[in-house]
Amino acid sequence: MENIYxxxxxRILSIVPHTDxxxxxxxxxxxxxxxxxxxxxxxxxxxxxxxxxCGIGPGFIDLTLRRVGVVTEALYDFKVGDSLFVRGPYGNxxxxxxxxxxxxxxxxxxxxxxxxxxxxxxxxxNPDLTxxxxxxxxxxxxxxxxxxESLKLWPKNIQLLITxxxxxxxxxxxxxxxxxxxxxxxxxxxxxxxxxVVGPPMMMKxxxxxxxxxxxxxxxxxxxYERKMCCGVGKCGHxxxxxxxxxxxxxxxxxxxAKNIVD
Amino acid sequence: MGxxxxxxxFDAALKNLEEKYRIYAPATLSGMNTFSDTELIRYEExxxxxxxxxxxxxxxxxxxxxxxxxQTLFYFTEDQYIEPKIDEKKVLVFLxxxxxxxxxxxxEIYLKNKFSDKYYKVLRDKVKFVLIGCEFSFENCFCVSMExxxxxxxxxxxxxxxDQVLLDIKDEEFKAIFIGESxxxxxxxVNENIVKVSVPDGLxxxxxxxxxxxxxxxxxxxxxxxxxxxxxxxxxxxQDIFYKDNKKNGERRRVWASCHVEGYTEMAGGHxxxxxxxxxxxxxxxxxxYDFKKRFGYHMCTGCGRxxxxxxxxxxxxxxxxxxxxxxxxxx
Lengths: 263, 332
Fold this sequence. Notes:
The structure holds two protein chains of two kinds. Chain A has helices at residues 70-75, 113-125, 148-153, 179-182, 201-214, 246-249, 255-258; strands at residues 8-17, 22-28, 38-43, 47-57, 60-66, 83-90, 104-109, 133-139, 159-164, 174-175, 194-198, 221-224, 240-241, 244-245, 252-254. Chain A is of the alpha/beta class. In chain A, the strands form three sheets. In chain A, strands 10-9-8-7-11-12-15 form a seven-stranded mixed β-sheet, with helices on both faces. A six-stranded antiparallel β-barrel of chain A has the order 1-2-5-4-3-6. Chain A is globular, with a radius of gyration of 18 Å. Chain B is α+β, with helices and mostly antiparallel strands. Chains A and B meet through β4 and α1 of A and β4, α3, β11, β12 and α7 of B.
């Protein structure tokens, strides 16, 4: 019988730092996966942590880690060529069928960009498959930018708006919370536009409220939840909200369902 | 039909089983409970029927036989994951009707719920049930309300009467081992409890924000004892350790977790949910009598009443469920 807790060894192909505390690991990975799914990164003697898949390519996935926990701290000492362990992918993820040939707006706060980056990448690579893709992304400050290379490339095919909560004097970019920009966002068809909101709990709460105010339909609004998980396979109970296991039934939900899920 | 045999003959038969089985049953350990001079009744490996506590409710459930409090999942050496060896002996466990029902609940989570858990399955497949009857209902029991007061799911039933033991054997394997004089034996099941519970229809998120939960913000001290004595609580936390003498070696374990205890929802970085103890009480209550049923078709709670027995704050879970009847009417 298969042991669902047995991880597989995965070689680190590249390590790219985003910020002082955030780093992107590209690792060998051959299972099929979707944007928004996650893997349990497993470091023997340190533990396991659920990490969003933020990039998918032939034979690899990208994982962006923030140095906040025991596992991510341990990973900081890993080098290219070393191996870590993973199991997964887990969770439902985003189904691209729900977004193809539609107007797509992605609103991400900070590391919330990781789980949705795959959607943006997809429409950057396939601009013909969308009726317009916009990314609205907020960071704490200019030094907290993630995926700097992608942020430079995306504007070629994606409408990109970056904002920061605060910045030192002289910063030329947008300053202010994401919610500030939703009111004036150009949305071609309110009835059919698909909106994805991922970020810290407070950001999600108020961003979702703004989009609903604009008239976006609850069933066209998507969110992804982050919760404590020990197993990723519906056993440990930590991620359960009401009758919903975030690891099995989520982490991606339509807002029409998500609004009825309470911690 | 059943049989009657002497305690001596029963113990001799039990001894025969020892070769193939580990035998677990509730046993009274005097002076071992938290307070001085108080007895602890919990599951222990036993060799004789005289060691088994038939007259009192076990304070802890039998779930430990399939869900050890601490269970090693892997041993690590350098970068190898090695699964621990499995004890070849089968398991015979003495338990009451409500606790037999609780195993169905554990099965839903560990064997179904999309993935099957190998560690649980290996232990679960070894288990055979020996039913202990209930001549009368214990304090705080409400098994009748939860429809867990009777069961047919047992290998044999045992009732000691003086120096004799009455058995009702269903499993052919044991018919050859326990041999005695034929007599009529019917298991004792209770048909009524003093505590009665009615789980209202119409539970849902409407009751989540009701002020009734605020009472538990201060009454509940988040000690988690209710979870640890519960025969149906299944949550665990992963824990990696390494050995002090050789940091290259270590193991991954899972240990029982409690949704009442601080840190249950806390993620790396410190963010957590359900900060108020009343919210945790609501979360547990809804799992036991609402959302488990939504997912699996029947209530998780079996009405064993151990949570009420153990609570140091005298919180009554059965009373909490009953209070929901009025709350549901209020929010409708």
